[in-house]
Amino acid sequence: MSRDYDIIIIGTGPAGFSSAMQSSKFGKEVLVVESHKKYLGGTWINTGTVPSKALREAAKNILDFNEQFGDHEHKKPYERFQMDDLLQYKQEILEKENQKVKNDLIKNKVDVARGFGRLKGKHTVEVETHIGSTETYTADYILVSTGSSPIPPTNFEVDNDKVLDYKSILEITHIPRRLVVIGSGVNAIEYATIFAALGTRVTLLSDKKDYLTFLDHEIKEHLQNSLRKKGITIKKNVRVEDVSFSALRNFTEVKFRSKSEDKRLQVVETEHVLFLGGRKPNIDGLNLDTVGIKTDDRNFIETDDSFKTNVDNIYAAGDVIGFPRLASASFSQGRLAACNMFGIPALEVPDQIPYGIYAIPEISNIGITEQDAEEMGLDVTVGRAYFKNIAKGNMSNNSEGLLKLVFSTNSLKLLGVHILGADAANLIHLGQSVMSYGGDVRYFINHVMNYPTMSEAYRIAAFNGVNRVHKAGVKYKNILEDKSEE
Q1: Per-domain boundaries in the chain
Q2: Where is the FAD/NAD(P)-binding domain positioned along the sequence (predicted)?
Q3: Could you read off the pLDDT of 211-237 as tens digits, one per residue?
Q4: Residue 421 labelled as part of a binding site
């Protein structure tokens, strides 16, 4: 039976976009369905990764300028800079990225249908357009890549005025003097540090006993010290009971209680509240039950390792399938889904992928932590390099930071890399590359690196680690020998 397209992709976020590009390269007829009236790229470009990181870069530039050249007038950033300037910068980046996606789709002859797409059968997608009409398309394969959205709070409302969410915070018209961030995830830490860098007095309320528990303990300690220096107050294991605006005091009041022994009611006054809770998959209205697509207990779509659902010709990728819910992983998932559905040989997404936390300072990691190794009963050694001991770190006013290597004491095989500090999310890729081929820390010792660069941290950390091994009784000359044949 002849169908309209080889593949229909619902959603143009990182998974949908990469799948469309890969399918087009295979010579396939591709249709993408985008619900937004104007933009492409979903949360990735419009309200998530791109705009929030653009805002972060602007805030960091302001912080770096103040720290490097001083503030002789003793003014806070919010007294010297206008939020409009930051928002204009963010919007310019957003527009450029949107245009890039649009141009790539046009160049690769990918058709775009604007409207809300839903399944009408195993091979059929119905699109409800913005003018109220419906269009029906058929394809051999369908990819669902509709992303995720925030779970709203249960005991107060996001009014997008005093109480903001991940969308409305990107449209705030001024730099607030005070901000309460409610959340315990990566985004909460990122936004807390962004606004603290702008001079805002930030309070973070977390309903968890701790935050970012997956971090290496030393990286976590350095982060906590950095948060304290920025004046960020963190209240952990608390339950927010009410958020209300007091016209008399012209402040928003946030009432909360500790979940532990001290359950007295506490109140913090603020200009704005930023709510950053958990996320849920965007499956409402997709008619998954029409074709019998299975979801897990949190309603994320279930797939196998090839990203195929329980329906043979329907695949899913990106945030809509759950963990790890990273734009970087979604790009790979979408591409691999296209390869798998069209029978093109491709490698699987690696088990170990780098995580980037775009706080100030930046954090990134891959592989196991030192405490993971202890729990696994592995004999490991760690090597450290502090950014204050790196020439480039001091030249660029980025002396706050640490790079930590975790490696096998016996084989020197690299097992984990953990970084806090400037350009951490870029620096991690050198360690990722060495780990991907099963390499060891001698790579960093035996290869010449540009000087001065932040990459020098790898060499310093490697020497620091192998010196520990040497002191433990292993001959230094053997450490530097090539043991690749062993």
Answers
A1: 5-150+280-342, 163-277, 361-480
A2: 5-334
A3: 999 999 999 999 999 999 999 999 999
A4: no
Say if residue 231 carries a ligand binding annotation.
no
Is 308 within any annotated ligand binding site?
A: no
Torsional class of 74: left (φ above 0), alpha (ψ -120 to 50), beta (otherwise):
left
146 is in an annotated binding site: yes
pTM of this prediction?
0.91
Which pLDDT tens digit goes with each residue over 118-136? 999 999 999 999 998 999 9
Q: Which one of 3.40.50.150, 3.40.50.1820, 3.40.50.10860, 3.50.50.60 gives the CATH number of domain 5-150+280-342?
A: 3.50.50.60
Q: Is 472 annotated as a binding residue?
A: no
383 annotated as a binding-site residue: no
Question: Is 319 annotated as belonging to a binding site?
Answer: yes
Q: How far apart are CA 334 and CA 150, in angstroms?
A: 22
Q: Is 292 annotated as a binding residue?
A: no
Q: 361-480, superfamily in CATH?
A: FAD/NAD-linked reductase, C-terminal dimerisation domain (3.30.390.30)
Is 310 flagged in the annotation as binding? no
Q: Which residue, among 276, 316, 274, 275, has the nearest Cα to 299 in the 3D structure?
A: 316
Tell me whether residue 293 is annotated as binding.
Answer: no
Other C-beta atoms closer than 10 Å to the C-beta of 432 total 18
Query: Residue 140 — φ and ψ, nearest 5°?
Result: -70, -40
State yes or no: 397 annotated in a binding site.
no
